[in-house]
Structure formats: structure tokens, C-alpha cells
Amino acid sequence: MDEFSLIADADARGLAYLRGAAAQRVFPDAAALNALRRFEESFPTEGFSDAQTLALLDEIGSPATVVSNGPRYFGFVIGATLPAAAAAERLAVAWDQCASSFDGSPVAATIEKVAARWVLEALDLPRESAVGFGTSATACGLTCLATARRALLARAGWDFDNDGLSGAPEIRVVVSAAAHITVKKALRVLGFGMKRLIVAPVDEQGRIDAERLPALDARTILCLQAGEVNTGEFDPFVPLIERARAAGAWVHVDGAFGLWARASGLAALTHGVEGADSWTCDGHKWLNTPYDGAMAICRDGDAMAATMNSDAVYATASKDAQKNLMLEFSRRARGVAIWAALRTLGREGVAALVERHCRQARLLAQGLREAGYNVLNRVVLNQVLVRGDDDAQTIAIREAAQASGELWFGATVWEGRPAFRLSVSSWRTRDDDIADAIALMARLKRQ
User: Fold this and answer.
1) What is the model's pLDDT at position 312?
2) Which of 164, 193, 285, 432 sits at a 20 to 30 Å CA gap from 406?
3) How far, in Å, are 26, 79, 151, 195, 314 from residue 360 at the CA level?
4) What is the distance, to the nearest Å, from the Cα of residue 319 to the centroid of all Cα atoms in its chain?
5) In this model, does residue 316 exceed pLDDT 90?
6) Is 192 exposed, middle or buried (0-12, 13-18, 19+ CB in 10 A)?
7) Can you tell me the distance from the alpha carbon of 399 to that of 408, in angstroms, rounded to the nearest whole number?
8) pLDDT at residue 320, rounded to an integer
9) 127-160 as b/e: b if 16+ CB within 10 A
């Protein structure tokens, strides 16, 4: 099989998978999981044909997928890929660009600059901000937090680039008691010991209590949340950021999915967030772009570029080149899919997507309440946090729902007890899918 026939075969198999996704089990059954043993081969001495390799990948791999690119996946905030974003990704793969700078890919550099501008407009963040397209909120958070530390040390007269951390003034970090694990991971990788983090108390919905905010100073990074992972709630940005501003602290906002509320009629939930210094946001969550597409946004673009600069004698570029804003030197043009999604949806389409999912989450919560479940959050966004009558029933129902193959959602722990969380974030999810989910959950509750 020649190159073009092989790629055409892959396209045909991909289309067949998409056409059948709605009818496929959301989580694979035992037979599909057992078949994965076919991949446990010895490293071949003589390679297989291209066609044989592709056939194995599809015939054994496709049935063992979790159908997150479908309408009935509520496990995490994972949006199914929009057709325009998927098509743009397909073309970008064919281009095979090293999208580090204009010299590596004029088209990628141009499109990603436009995408960066549109992201700032959609999220209504300071237009002078730099936007780096990274792999995830974890990697983007690491970039923003590294920038924050370097900037605060520079204000204190310390040359981080040349003198490192040995003997440097200590930078304090204040995090929410409900901070997401990816923020903690980024801080840990950067060398902020977990025992040295200062934890801000939260209220019953997981929001930082502004009255109990620990003391801040000019050597403090304050980490806030736009969209708590269980409740979907937002920290009270106005009083918290005012306190930080007065103290000279740096404010970073983890807005992996919740920041998209700012692009919709729910923007009031994010009031004041624009006063922060840096933000992270995912495309592969609520914007419904392919995975491996997130954004690090920093008000002080020069500080971000100085922190992440990777110019070499053989490869120099402008300070806003993506290789000088993010971790990767060699990188794919992940901003192309974000550009395609924003161009195809437009401002009104982004707002409609977010608002529809929030409305569907409220429908889901109401239906579960009527079925006898305890809905634990106010459902201000797209997250529905749920328990059964007791811990044993909560676990049993979650396991039965997962085993059904009709939908999938995952476990969580809230206030020390088991719960489960349903996230509504796929463009494929219709009201009928919500109704079906409610009917299944009601049946499981009765049983």
C-alpha cells in the first residue's frame, strides 16, 4: 500500500469510528479489554506492513476506546472534538510543521498569533497579554508560575537566571484548600515543597473565604480558581485580587475550564478575574478542540518571554515566538485547532456552547434530585456533584452506571466522603442524552 492509499485508509477508518461512536459502549466491555493483549508483542525483527499495523490499531484499538468523542461521556470536563477543529488538526498533521517560530513555519506562526488575539478577546483578558499554546493546564501552569517566581525575585533585586535559587529570597505560595492537583504538581516540579504551601480555607462550595485569606506580601504568589473541579464554583476574585494588589503579590488563576464562562452569558461568575497577572485555560476541555491544546496567558508578556526564552545561535526568533513563550523548543502547531474552533464558532457560538452545557447541567441536576439523589452543589456551571443515600449506594450506583456502557462518569471525594461527578461539556450532547442519563440513573437508584 502506497503512502496516499494508507492515509486514505486511515481516514476511512476514522470516519467509520466517528459514525459508530454514538452507538458504541462509552467504556469498553471485557472482551474488548481482553483483546488488547494482541498489542503485547515482542519487538519485531522484521517489521510488519503499513496496512497490517493500521488494521491492528483500528480493529483491536478502536473497540477498546473510551468514547469521550461522543454524546454520553460525563466523566471529566472533556469536550468531543468539533469537526472544524478535527479537520484543521488533520491538515496540520499533513503539514508536519516545526511550529517554533516564523522561520520554522510562517503559516503556524501567523495563525497562532491570530488565535492568541482571539483567545484574549473571547475571554476578555488584558489585550497586551502574551498567549502560549501548550500541552495542558499543567504545563501551562508551570510556565505561568515559573514566570511569577522569576518576576517577584527580580522585583526583590535577585537575578534568578544567573544565581538560581540558592540563597534567593523565599517566594511564598498561597493556594486554595480546594486547589486542583495540576497546580500542586506544577508547584512541586518547580521546587515549592508541598509542606511549605500556605493553604487558604474555603467555604462549603470550595471557594476561598476572603475573610480568612492568609497574609500576602510582595514575595507571594496567590493561586485562585475559575471553576472548582467538583462544584464548578469561582473564587471571589474582586476582594482577593484587591488584597493581592495592595500587597504587591502575583495572582495566578487556574481557569482550565471555568474561564470559558467569561465568553458567555455567565461572565458575571468571573467578575474581577481580569485583574490577575496570569491565567491558564484549556482548549481541549470546553472549547472542544483535540487533546494537547491549552493556553498559558500572562499580562506581562516580556516577563513570560524572558522566563521561557530558548533562543540559540542557530535559531533566534521574536520574543513572542511560541518557543520563547512555552516549554517546548520543537513543537507542533497546536494553536491551529484552537483558531479553527474559534473561527467556526465565532463569539456567539462559543457563548451558545457554554450556555447550553450549563443549562443541560441544571436539567441533569433537577432530574437526579427528582430521582432521589442528593445533589451537593449549586450547579452554577457544568458540574453536577452527587451522592446516593449512603456511601455504599453511591459507590454501587457509580459502578453500575460505568458497567452499563450507556454513559460514563467518575468517582470523587467531597468533604471526606465518596461522591460522583457528572461534567457536561461535549458539543455532541443533546437534551435527549441528558434525559437518557436521568432515566438510567433513576432506574439504578430504584434497583
Assistant:
1) 79
2) 285
3) 19, 14, 42, 40, 52
4) 26
5) no
6) buried
7) 9
8) 87
9) eebbbbbbbbbbbbbbbbbbbbbbbbbeeeebeb
Give residue for cell 522561520.
103
**Which one-letter amino acid corresponds to residue 88?**
A
C-alpha cell at 332: 507542533
Give pLDDT, residue 315: 74
> Which residue carries 439504578 as its cell?
444
Alpha helices, DSSP H only, in 21-136?
30-35, 50-56, 83-95, 106-123
* Residues 94 and 87 sit within 8 Å (Cβ to Cβ): no
Residues 6+ apart with CB under 8 A from 281: 119, 123, 137, 140, 255, 256, 257, 259, 260, 294, 295, 297
pLDDT category of residue 317 using cuts at 50, 70 and 90: confident
The dihedral sign for the CA sequence 388, 393, 394, 400 = negative
387 touches 379 (CB < 8 A): no
pTM: 0.95
Condensed to tens digits (0 to 9), the pLDDT of residues 44-76 reads 999 999 999 999 999 999 999 999 999 999 998
Contacts of 243 (CB under 8 A, 6+ apart): 210, 213, 216
- Cα torsion angle, 141, 419, 288, 4, sign: positive
For 29, 355, 382, 413, 414, the CA distances from 419, given in Å and listed in that order, are: 24, 25, 16, 5, 6
Q: Of 139, 432, 182, which Cα lies nearest the Cα of 293?
A: 139
Q: Are 66 and 83 in contact (CB under 8 A)?
A: no
Written as nine digits, the cell of 241 is: 485580587
The whole-angstrom separation of Cα 376 and Cα 386 is: 6
Residue 9's pLDDT band (cuts 50, 70, 90) = very high
Asked whether residue 314 carries a pLDDT value surpassing 80, the answer given is no
**32: Cβ contacts below 8 Å, ≥ 6 apart:** 25, 63, 64
Interval 406-429: pLDDT, tens: 999 999 999 999 999 999 999 999
